[in-house]
Every structure is written in structure tokens, then in C-alpha cells.
Amino acid sequence: MSAEQTRDRILDAALKLFSQKGYLGAPTREIAREARVAEVTLFRHFPAKEALFKEVIRRYSFLPALRSILPGLEDAGYEEALLAIARRFLATLDERRDLIRIMLAERHLYPSQVKGIFRGFLGEMVRMLSDYFRQLQARGVLRDFDPDAAAKAFLGAFFAYVHFLGFFFETAENRRHNDRFAVEFVSLFIQGTVRHGAAVGSWGKPGRGDGGSRKGGAARRTGRTGLTG
User: Looking at residue 72, which CATH number applies to its domain?
Assistant: First the structure.
């Protein structure tokens, strides 16, 4: 077995046990046993449990997905881009719901290094999305607002939908309606962020005069923008 395969097995085992037992309840010896390697082998790849946890978060969180999809959205419409981000984020939150819930439950017990890992990857997600909003503001597509606050609000809404509201209201039927929520929230978010008169068909271009204004106005009145029908 190659070193890369061994590393992957350790990370898969860590994800499984962190999801079941949390960071505090999953000792490295159990992770090594789950990965079918010696604990000393685990430490050759990850010198400390914090390093292993950081790599699990780096690999399996929404951050790598956001990194990969944002560059491909440069020529997409604003609504199309936000929907792509929202749908991917919802899918990741749903897939990692066990890990996230147990992490939230024990977060007050974490050492400072682990809290720093969370702050780091959450901060980078917010920064990437806020940079996207700043680019659209610079092109006249979006009105003036705090991009960092908007990024937190956008990501926080989906997080709350899955891990707060879902905790109290979730049913099998509701979970099938994730996409409906994504479409509705993106439509509301667009209405609050697009500059009056700006076209949203292409994120890199400002509004196109009166035609764009009339189209934007119709979209705002109906609660829709082109791609939601």
C-alpha cells in the first residue's frame, strides 16, 4: 500500500470516528485501528491529533468545494452562481450533518488549537465569498453593503436551515425540499443585494441601461430572476 493510500485510509477512518464520537471521543489509537494501521504509522503522517483533525476539515468540509466552483462561475449569472454555491453547500451540510452536530455539542470543551482550526476554515470560506461580492460591487452589479456581513449571512442561513431549524422541524419530506429552500433564499438574497437597474445575467457586467432595469424590476416584483422560471 502506498503512502498516499495509507494517508487516505487514516483520513477516512478519522472522519468516520470524529462523526460518531466527536473530536474528544475519538483517540488516535482507535482511528489507527479503524484504518488498520499502527498508531505509529498514523503519527508518521500526522504528528498530532490536531494536525489530523485539521486535514479532515480541510478535505471534507465545504471549503475545497467552494475553492473549486468559484473560478468556474466567473461567466455565470449572479443567480446561477449563488444557486450553485447554495446547492453545493446544502449537500455538504447534509452529508456531514453527524460530524457537525457532534462538533457543535462539544465545542465548548475544545482546546484553543482546535478552535483555531474552525476559525481558520470558516474565515477562509467567508473571505472567498465576500471577495466574490466585492468584485460584483466593483463592476456595478451589486449595491453598496458590507461583503463580509453578506457572506456570513448567506452561509449562515443554510447552516441554520440544516442544523438548527432541521433539528426541530426536519422530516424525510422536508429534507427533499432543500432545493426549494435554496431557490427561495437566493431569490430573496438577490433582491436585497443587486444594485437597482443592474442586470444579473452575467456577473462580470454591470446593468444594461433601461432594458436591464425593466427586467430587474420585473424580477423583483415577481420574486424571480431569470433562472428560477
Answer: 1.10.357
Name the residue type at position 169: F
pLDDT given for residue 161 in this prediction: 86
Please list the alpha-helical segments (H only) found in 36-143: 39-45, 49-60, 63-69, 78-95, 97-106, 112-138
Q: Which three cell numbers stand for residue 125?
A: 470560506
- Surface-to-core class of residue 28, CB atoms within 10 Å of its CB (0-12 exposed, 13-18 middle, 19+ buried): middle
pTM above 0.85, yes or no: no
Same domain, 174 and 201: yes
pLDDT tens, residue by residue, 186-220:
999 999 999 876 655 554 444 333 333 333 333 33
Is residue 142 classed as helix, strand or coil in its secondary structure? strand
Query: Phi, psi at residue 38, to the nearest 5°?
Result: -75, 150
* 197 three-class SS: coil
